[in-house]
Amino acid sequence: MDIDLNADLGEGFGPWRMGEDEALLDIVSSANVACGFHAGDPVIMDRTVRMARQRGVDVGAHVGFPDLMGFGRRPMQIETKELVAYVLYQLSALEGMARTAGHRMTHMSFHGALGNMAAADAALAEPLVRAVADFDPSLTVSTSASRAIEGAAERCGLRVRTTFLADRACGDDGLLVPRKLPGAVIHERDAVLARVRQLLEEGTVTSSTGKKIPMRVHSILLHGDTPGAVDLARAVRGVVEQAGRVVPISKQST
Questions:
Q1: Per-residue pLDDT tens for 52-76?
Q2: pTM of this prediction?
Q3: How many CB atoms lie within 10 A of CB 218?
């Protein structure tokens, strides 16, 4: 089975940059582009989409809370109807940028606190995923392991791309450990690569309690906002290729 490599990109704002987007675009096969709510702005979105198109990299909307100050990582209490409108707004923004650049939006993902909340709450995941289906039923939902989001996508007739976050710890239920807890983010390069090898060879992930849990994934997320991100991304791609897995090439015209 092919393994998609994706990264969250376009997460700067104005003159401020976060991550090495251009270098990562030479490594990944798909990009999750910030849509201006947790990060990003129209100029950065446009540039990121055009760079992705030049390299044959698929693009998707990375949808988050309206929280530039907190980078979308702070839980917010917002009425569901309003959240649905926020999702549609961000999808529309990236779709417009992609179409104008001669590219096509293929997928979407929920960022940060919004993603964590939807992953743990089926009542929240359902209307948000339904909004994605109403916007474009051909989109794929990219998500970390989550029965709530995966179940909602199935009911809405959407494809799901389950994604492994190699540098993020998960609980016995497969959900991500909150960033505020010790050990939630795995910084050691060897530990990250060992987790990728285990996933590819055994189809399992070791949870934060030491339990091996089965996990069938279609994609590996490479975070671009951590020190040494590009070198780690190259190393992860090397592990994937050594395992005989193929990193797919975009079927879109470049």
A1: 999 999 999 999 999 999 999 999 9
A2: 0.92
A3: 17
Residues 6+ apart with CB under 8 A from 218: 1, 2, 3, 4, 161, 162, 163
Rounded-to-integer distance, Cα 115 and Cα 70, Å = 15
Query: Going by C-beta distance under 8 Å and a sequence separation of 6 or more, which residues neighbour residue 9?
Result: 19, 21, 24, 25, 31, 32, 33, 34, 48, 52, 224
Contact 30, 62 (CB under 8 A): no
Of 151, 188, 183, 152, whose CA–CA distance to 170 is shortest?
Answer: 183
Question: For residue range 88-128, what is the model confidence (pLDDT) as tens digits?
Answer: 999 999 999 999 999 999 999 999 999 999 999 999 999 99
Task: Report how far residue 120's alpha carbon sits from residue 129's, in angstroms, rounded to the nearest whole number.
Answer: 14
Q: What's the pLDDT at 180?
A: 85
Do 124 and 80 meet the contact criterion of CB atoms below 8 Å apart? Answer: yes
Predicted local confidence at residue 19, as pLDDT: 86
